[in-house]
Amino acid sequence: EAQVTQNPRYLITVTGKKLTVTCSQNMNHEYMSWYRQDPGLGLRQIYYSMNVEVTDKGDVPEGYKVSRKEKRNFPLILESPSPNQTSLYFCASSLGRYETQYFGPGTRLLVL
Amino acid sequence: AQSVTQLDSQVPVFEEAPVELRCNYSSSVSVYLFWYVQYPNQGLQLLLKYLSGSTLVKGINGFEAEFNKSQTSFHLRKPSVHISDTAEYFCAVTSSKAAGNKLTFGGGTRVLVKP
Lengths: 112, 115
Description:
With 112 residues, chain A is mainly beta.
């Protein structure tokens, strides 16, 4: 089944404790993105990647890092999480630049 | 810079009634427009998209949208809703000048279908 998977689905952590949210897609898509969803703000892009080793900042990259060492994986790293990073995070992938983006199920993060 | 405004944050509607969700965008270049739906506790899935061609776009589950360039709008409609259409709906835009695969989303419209 074609899908985007994310882990973990739920995470509670404390300020400053490094964490990684994994994202994997099995559709051989070139493009991958991370978004955060906050009430009333819709989804905002954090980082995106156009191919292996090619990543760039989205609208809200502060406090996040990403890497794309393999085509299928695009982990999101929070080196020192803060409470304002409490949010719902989505990973997405697409075949091309204007193609449909396929979203993972989301990761709900609470930073205390 | 591109932006999207969804004019209604919540839309209550009775089952079998029609619904229209409004979306306006701003962009100085050619745009590509999308509507996504998010069912409770799930990710987003595509309802429909406009890339070019006919301005009336038909999507899944009986939804359709009309691209109006002069009014910079891309309103979503369904003639008769079901309880299962209760969800949050997001309008999104990208353009030929947007970096990478950047999608700019509106704030979302929550649709609550009442029996």
